Amino acid sequence: MPSAVKPSFGRVALVGKLGSPEIASSLRELVAFLKKRGCETFIEKETAAAVGERGLDYEAIGAAADLAVVIGGDGTLLAAARNLVRHRVPVVGIMPRSSAGANRCCVRWRSTKRWSARARRAA
Fold first, then answer.
1. Is 57 in the active site?
2. Contact at 8 Å (CB) between 27 and 14?
């Protein structure tokens, strides 16, 4: 049996939709999941304050994170991407939604490299 593979994203920033009570438990579960796999985690400061934790601003996240995971809707994902694009931090969005009482998630990947190229063309 092969030994455990070290994750390619060792430092992961977490951003959550503000004012959403179900985000707190999702963030805590995600932190535990990532730490079990050897990842260092950071929580964005406004998200952290909403769940009673200490966090980092986007500048510090941009300097330290290999990946950002955003839990929330399109607005939350776009806000995080806008703040992290200059740091070239890849962003993954998890969009929780409820259907017939069962929790489901939709995962979206946004490449900040591609967004950066679009932003330069638009400027």
1. no
2. yes
